[in-house]
Amino acid sequence: MSLNCTVILAAGEGTRMKTLSSKVLTKVVFKSMLERTIDAALKSDVEDVCVVTGHKSEEVRKVLDDKYETVLQSELLGTGHAVMQARDFISRHADGNVLILNGDAPLMDVETVSGALKMHTESSNSATVISASIDNPFGYGRIVRDENGKFLRIVEQKHASEEEQKICEINSGAYWFKCGDLIAALDTLLSSPEKYAHGDKKVEYYLPEVLEILMEENKNVGAFTTDNPDVVLGANDRVQLLELNEIVRHKILNAQMLNGVSIPCTDGIIIGDDVVIGKDTEILPNTIIRGKTVIGENSVIGPNTVIDDSTIGNNTHLDNVKCNCATVCDNVTVGPFVNIRPNAVVSDSVHIGNFVEIKNSNIGNGSKVPHLSYIGDTDMGSKCNIGGGTITVNYDGKKKHRTTIGNDVFVGCNTKLVAPVKLGNHSYTAAGSTLTEDVPEDSLAIARSRQVIKVNWNKNK
Ligand code: UD1
Ligand code: CA
User: Fold this and answer.
1) How far apart are CA 84 and CA 202, in angstroms?
2) Is residue 77 in contact with ligand 1, taking CB distance under 6 Å?
3) pTM of the full predicted structure?
4) Rounded to 10 degrees, what is the CA torsion of 296, 299, 301, 302?
5) What is the pLDDT of residue 202?
6) Are 380 and 361 in contact (CB under 8 A)?
7) pLDDT at 215
8) Cα 260 versus chain centre, distance
9) Measured between alpha carbons, how far apart are the two ends of the chain, in Å?
10) Per-residue model confidence as pLDDT tens digits over 79-111
11) Residue-wise over 417-455: b if at least 16 C-beta within 10 A, else e?
12) Are 182 and 80 in contact (CB under 8 A)?
């Protein structure tokens, strides 16, 4: 069993994000920055998670949904102080290593975290900081090394000399520490007014300074340089958030394409991390696919289609469709302009045409609902033909009722089916009928007033 754990720093306010909630809860491709950071940790060799909350801690805890331990940092006194709040958690893993991550750096990946852990254990390091070389290091802590490339310390932007400011290797804010060594060093960490005699007035404890303390004790400290500098990127405002979204969006689309999914143009296509799509399926522009959606092979999805938490089969075409919490089986054509709502099951070889809404209903094999219909709370058999304008009248003002349609039923145009009502197998309804009573098998139901002709009515009026 692994003894490693992770502490995620998520207490900061992030003023520039201008959010009513917490910055770490802003989303990158449908998932909060915080959840993405936790995912990166869990995919590597980590057993236990502790999140340091502070600003909007209630909201952060709600998103975490009791899945992970949290500690409260009630005063925001810096990254070192944030880690101090997790002292008990870290002590419980005293023999293992702790991974510290910034909750606002959601692109951290498992390759980097695992690579750093490998170096950390192989070199028997007390601390290993993850670094990256970037073109514009302004604002980041810089990694200072000696002439042999050995790690010396991290210097923050505001304390960096002119020479140090030229260093392009930066501190990602992610580190592996030996738990026991980190706890001991935190006890001796000075606040910035104590350390920088004439410098800062604001009391802040800098986590990077723990590395200096460990080096003074002759412990091994190293820097693991990632070859993917994207992993250090964070977002301080919504413009940077868009950059992160674009990176993650293309990463997901590329993975889908390499798995055999065709995307002839990526414009407006956003696909969530957990979506599964089969080979030879084509995704067309302006299509958003989220949640636990699974799509089969050789289907065409889009353009202009939004699918949430649904299962879509093989050889199925959704064109301008909204589909939420529903199942659409094989060889189905849907659209354009169709709304498939929760609990709809559209069986094999069904055709749903334009301007149709389906909710909480089963549509049997080979049935057709080609135009302008509302089918709600309905069980429909196979091979039915539902005329344009058919409405299931499922709500009496108080309760919802079901409509049952057998196999091979022909519903004339503009039929209203006032539920609860049953149409037997092979039955017909006349166009324009409002049905309130069941229709037996093989029968025709006519429920409309007869046409009256008044000859020469216009001439004589
Ligand atoms: C920190 C590092 C810097 C590094 C950079 C990488 C320090 C002193 N500096 O700087 O070397 O290059 O990250 O992005 O650590 N947080 C708390 N409580 C606090 C303060 C911060 O939980 O009291 C959390 C924030 O929510 C955030 C993370 O810690 O997730 C980093 O804090 P931030 O203020 O953004 O640190 P930087 O100034 O960016
Ligand atoms: Ca930051």
Assistant:
1) 18
2) yes
3) 0.92
4) 180
5) 84
6) yes
7) 97
8) 22
9) 95
10) 999 999 999 999 999 999 999 999 999 999 999
11) bbbbbbbbbebbbbebbebeeebeeeeebebbeeeeeee
12) no
CA separation (Å) from 90 to 98, 125, 186, 212?
A: 7, 17, 11, 20
Per-residue confidence (pLDDT) for residue 201, from 0 to 100: 78
Ligand 1 in reach of 17 Cβ (< 6 A): no
> Which amino acid residue places its CA nearest to atom 37 of ligand 1?
140
pLDDT at residue number 1: 42
Q: Where are the domains of the chain?
A: 5-232, 238-445
Task: Kindly state the tokens that stand for 443.
Answer: 């029968």
Q: How many residues does the chain have?
A: 461
Place of tokens 């709040």: 85
Encoded amino acid at 334, one letter: V
3-state secondary structure 259-312: CCCECCCCCCCEECCCCEECCCCEECCCCEEECCCEECCCCEECCCCEEECCEE
* CATH code 3.90.550.10 for 5-232: yes
Q: Which two tokens stand for residue 202?
A: 């604001």
> Measured between alpha carbons, how far is 137 from 244 in angstroms, rounded to an integer?
17
CA of 235 to the centre of ligand 2 (A): 8
Burial of 67 (0-12, 13-18, 19+ CB in 10 A): exposed
For the domain made up of 238-445, give the CATH fold. UDP N-Acetylglucosamine Acyltransferase; domain 1 (2.160.10)
Active site residue 371: yes
Alpha helices in 76-177 (DSSP H): 79-84, 87-91, 110-122, 162-165
Q: How many angstroms separate the alpha carbon of residue 207 from the centre of ligand 1?
A: 9
CB atoms within 10 A of CB 399: 9
| Residue ranges of the chain whose pLDDT lies below 50 | 1-2
Neighbours of 66 (CB within 10 A): 8
Q: Where are the beta strands (DSSP E) in 381-446?
A: 385-386, 391-393, 403-405, 410-411, 416-418, 421-423, 428-429, 434-435, 444-445
